[in-house]
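Appendix B. Raw example, untouched.
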Amino acid sequence: MSAHPGAVGPFPPGVDPDEYDRLRRRVLWRLPTGLYVLGSRAGERRNLMTLNWAMQVTTSPKQLAVSVEQTAHTHELMLEGEGFSLALMDREDRAAVRRFVKPAAHDPVARTLAGMPYRDGLSGAPIPALAAAWLDCRKTATLPLGSHTVFVGEVVDVGVGSDGEEVPVLRMEDTRMSYGG
């Protein structure tokens, strides 16, 4: 039996690799995940990127881990940069994350990325003005793992949207987007 060209093993003995790969993807896609905007910066180069693999990994100190595909433009900025930001988005702003599935055009004069205003956090990474809440992190570790690299950062600053209200935050299942598996 030969697997689909995109299928990645290992496969249990006696299974059809194509069927197993489809099942594995369906189960992995059901893992609950948020949908965020990741800010990165290296020198004067900045980017905002849609991301769904993020989690808190320690409580003392408070640290986050994000996983970035090694072929992504953001990956280079994350390797060279000193920190990153993670913006939680309001469910009502689900269309905004689509702006950041490709490298964002930067207008340094207007201080926009893909037309969205931003400000720089303490780490230097951009934080989109539209964020419902955000975390700003100083990079503490980098771990290459297969197709992605996990970046860990200590939380150095946090905030909530301009009105201070808590709103339902965007999750992957709130969109028709899918990634991973």
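End of appendix B.
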